[in-house]
Every structure is written in C-alpha cells, then in structure tokens.
Amino acid sequence: MNIQALIARNQALEAQVSELKFELEQLKRLIYGRTSERFIPDESPSEQLNLFTQDASEQASVEPVVDQEEPLLEKITYSRKKPSAKPHPGRMPIPDHLPVETIILEPEGDLTGLVRIGEHVTEYIEYTPASLVKKVIIRPKYALPEQGDTTKVLIAKLPSRPIDKSIAGAALLAYILVCKYVDHLPFYRQIQRFKRDYNWNVHKSTVNSWFIAVCSLLEPLYELLLSQALQSDYLQADESKIKVLTKVPPDDKEDKKAKKKSKSPKDEKDGTDKKQRLGWMWVVHNPLNGYVVFNYQNNRAMEAANNTLANFRAGYLQTDGYSSYNHVAALPGVYRLGCMSHVRRKFFEAVSSDRKRAEQALGFIGRIYELDRKAAQIDDIQTRLRYRLDHMAPVYQKFKDWADEQAPSVTPKSPMGKALTYLQNQWPSLKNFFLDGRLLLDNNLIENKIRPLALGRKNYLFAGSDEAAQRAAMMYSFFATCKSHDINPIEWLTNTLNLIPDTKISNLHTLLPGYPPNKS
How many angstroms separate the CA atoms of 64 and 76, rounded? Predict the structure, then answer.
C-alpha cells in the first residue's frame, strides 16, 4: 500500500472517529445535558461592557515578594465596594377575585365595658379540594283531574346533555379530558384519584366510552377548526411521533416472535395480542388567527403531509427541511419558508468539534434575532418589512457569504460541514422571510404547540389504536387553540359540551375557541 493510500485511509478513519465522537456527545447531551441551545462565546464582543472591569479606585495593588530560591511571585490584593443588599419585593398580594371566608376571633375573657379600638387582619390562602356533586332533576307531571286521558300530561322538557342517558355531566367530562390532555394525567390515574378522594369507583371502560362519545359529538367542530386553520396564506407545519398499538395477526409468525419478546399488552375485548408501532401527529398552526390542528397519520411519508395540507392552496408554508413537505411547497403560488431556529441548532451541535466557526455562525444568528426583536415592536407591517430589508437583509447576506467561504475547507460529513450544507440547502426558503412583514423568523411557535404531546406520551405511553390516536389529535387541537387565545380549557369545553347538542351547523363556528378570531 503506497503512501497516498495510507494518507487517504487515515483521513477517512479520522473523519469516522470525529463523526462517532459527535454522535456520542449528542447522546450524552440528550441523556445528561441541558436542552437549552443558548450559546455564550468565550470572549465578549468589544462593544459589550465587561462586568469585571474595575474602577480606578478598585484597581489591584501589586506587592512583589522576592525569594532567592523560588521564582518571582506576586501577591495581588484589591478592594471593592460592598454590594448593597437587594431590597425584598415584599409578599405577593392575594388576588381580589378569590372568594373570601372571614373568621373573627374574639379574645378570651370578659369583654364587658371594653371598647373596640381597632383590629388586626391576617390574610392567607387555603385550599379547598374539588368535589363531585350528585345532581337530581325532578320534573313534576301535571294533568287535569276530571279528564281520564293520561296522554295529555304536562312535563318539563329534559335539558340536552352531552351524552344522553349518561351519569357524566359536561363539567365532569371536561375535567377528565383536560386532566389528561393538558395536565398529562392518564385515565387510570384519575380513576385512582376518584376512588381515593371521593370513594367513587368508576371503571376505565366507562371513562373510555365517555371519551369516545365526546369526540363523536365534537367531530364536526374539529372538522370546522381544520377548515378555518387552513384558510390562510400563512401556515406553519411540523410533525411529532406517537406510539400506537396494533393487533398482531394470528398467522404472522414473525409478529408472534416479536410479541413474545416485547410482552405486548392484550386487548381487553377480544384478548388478541398487540404490538407497538410509530404513528405521527402532523400539526398545522395558523399564526394569523391562532388556530392549531393536530392530524394523525400512521406514517411520515409525503402522502401524509399532502393529506394534512390538502386544502392549503397558496401562500407561505413554514417548515423545517424535511422532504415530505416538498410536494405541497412546490405547488403554484406556495412559498416555502425556512426556520432559522433549525439552522442555529445545527451550528450549536458543532460547537464541541469546531468552536471557532460555530461561534462565528452563532454570532451572525444572534445578531439576526436581535434585529428581529426590534422589528417585532413595529406594528405597521410595511414599515416592519422595510426595517428588515434595511437592517436584517445585509446580515443575512454576510452570513451566507461567510458560509460559502468556509464550506470548501470543512469536511462535508463533519458536524460543521453538515451545518453549512443545511444552511446552503435551506437558503432559498430562508430568503423568503423578506417577502412579507407578517412572517416569523422561525418555527418555534408550532414546536411549543407540540410540547404537550411530548409530555403526555411520557405518561400514557401509547394510543390504543389509530382511531384513539385521531381522537387524541382532536383534543390536542382544541386545547392548543385555547392556549393560543389564553382561554381556560375547562370553561371552554364545559360550555361547548352544554351548547353543541342544540347548536345548528350554520352556527357551529361560534363555538370555536377564540371566536371571533383575531386577524392580522
């Protein structure tokens, strides 16, 4: 083997070792490290004040200490002002809207002849546990006594309820669903709490049947939410995984072997074995009216993206670099927007392997975000766009020129090489940010909407079927939209369940969270 071949082999091995070290660092960071991507450079910029700069009165005094046998040492002492104690902000005031229960404590002893000269008031907050209330509706029946015809009996009409002939009222149903999909408390834990706190035994199949009935009732409202969310010229889209159970065919030997190894759960109804597989929640966020829609698909292919965004015709679609959105983004009249947050993440991951270049890239990105925060304070859209073109666009171009200059000297498969390649590939979609003053710099808003799903699946672990996953998508859609409009989810769902049985289809839009929507 000649020298050139050995050199090439050595370079390949070094690249492989570098890549493996990077993967190991990423795994360690996922397991042990922090999730924040905040980056603090080693040296502060020249225009930034140094927190450790001393005043003239605080300059260190140097006293040389000479030793004939030891090297010259310096004894450094300095003086500084004693920091003043930070004033205590005081006790947080108790909100005025809380109900008040007043207790008057009279002193012990004989009060005869004493004059009340004042009082001392002590306030604190106490907790009253929630309660289950048994409601009884009595409807008296009336008939004329002289007539024997009992068919003409007068009786009040029974009010509509979310689930006919069910013992669960709207408020209870809303509480159970919010506990699971907002507070991440699975049904079985809620059942345990009902038994512990209220001595009420309810079977999990009963709670599941309530959930299915509520979702069937809300399905038209969900379809309307999906339609309203997609009727926009600016959407953000992303996807996240969820585990789903599927039945194992009895004649599938490979599935049987996998089932034995994984100890798959049993289906309660027919006793068949099940195994877990990955499904995907495709999420669409409309930044203009705050509507959020989760749509379950059993795959992450382009077909799933096309199904979710089927009614999106033209406008701006903001996504990451995932290829499944390519078909929708290539439609006439659709402009794909990139995500600067994903670009920053790539360079942040390269800090450990190429700190100097990563620090330069993150410096560009930090400046871009700084200017964007200033632009966001401008209310007029056209003025905001002009500010971006005048101040942010030059920084964008400098960032791109720097990346093009660095790319040839970086190994393509290294973390820095991958970051530079990602930036160059996403550059056409990143430039579209300057087409409209309404557009956002990144996709962080929709990633925040997905966070409850990530927290919830750690608690309930999986959905029982594809249908159950779609029902979960429905509830996540409603509650994420409630959060966007700062609406109490229990109050909204209780009110909606009470009204929707008697609401006409033509008026169904009035039940959407945040109706009427705010349009920018």
Answer: 9
Rounded Cα distance, 134 and 520, in Å? 46
Task: Please state, in angstroms and as integers, the Cα–Cα distance from residue 265 to each residue in 260, 268, 274, 280, 469, following that order.
Answer: 10, 9, 6, 21, 17
- Asked whether 348 and 358 are in contact (CB, 8 A), the reply is yes
Spell out where 44-148 has E strands. 61-65, 73-77, 141-142
Question: ∠ CA 462-31-349 to the nearest 5 degrees?
Answer: 110
H or E element at residue 17:
helix 3-31
| Residue 176: count of CB within 10 angstroms of its CB | 21
DSSP codes joined into one string, 358-393: HHHHHHHHHHHHHHHHHHHT--SHHHHHHHIIIIIH
Nearest Cα neighbor of 441 from 339, 315, 336 is 339
Count how many residues are written for the chain: 520
Do 54 and 80 form a contact (C-beta atoms < 8 A)? yes
Are 73 and 67 in contact by the 8 Å Cβ rule? The answer is: yes
317's enclosing H/E stretch is strand 315-318
pLDDT at 488 over 80: yes
3-class secondary structure, 119 = coil
Compute the distance between CA of residue 9 and CA of residue 517 in angstroms, rounded to an integer. 62
- The average pLDDT across 452-466 equals 85
Q: Is residue 408 part of a domain?
A: yes
Could you tell me the residue range of the domain that residue 424 belongs to?
Answer: 340-442
User: pLDDT for 492-507, tens place per residue?
Assistant: 999 999 999 999 999 9
Residue type, 352: S
Do the bridges between strand 141-142 and strand 234-247 make them parallel or antiparallel, or are there none, so unpaired?
Answer: unpaired
Q: Give the global pTM.
A: 0.77
Q: Within a domain: residue 246?
A: no
DSSP string, 279-312: EEEEEEE-TTT--EEEEEES--SHHHHHHHTTT-
Q: Based on the structure, what is the number of domains in the chain?
A: 1
With contact defined as beta carbons under 8 Å apart, do 230 and 284 qualify? yes
Please compute, for residue 11, the number of CA atoms within 13 A of its CA located in the half-sphere on the CB side: 10
In a domain, 327, yes or no: no
- 98: tokens are 């809380």
- Is residue 513 very low, low, confident or very high in pLDDT (cuts 50, 70, 90)? very high
Contact 270, 249 (CB under 8 A): no
Q: 223 in helix, strand or coil?
A: helix
Q: In the numeric block, which tokens belong to residue 179? A: 């506990």
Is residue 137 included in any domain, yes or no?
A: no
- pLDDT tens digits for 371-406? 999 999 999 999 999 999 999 999 999 999 999 999
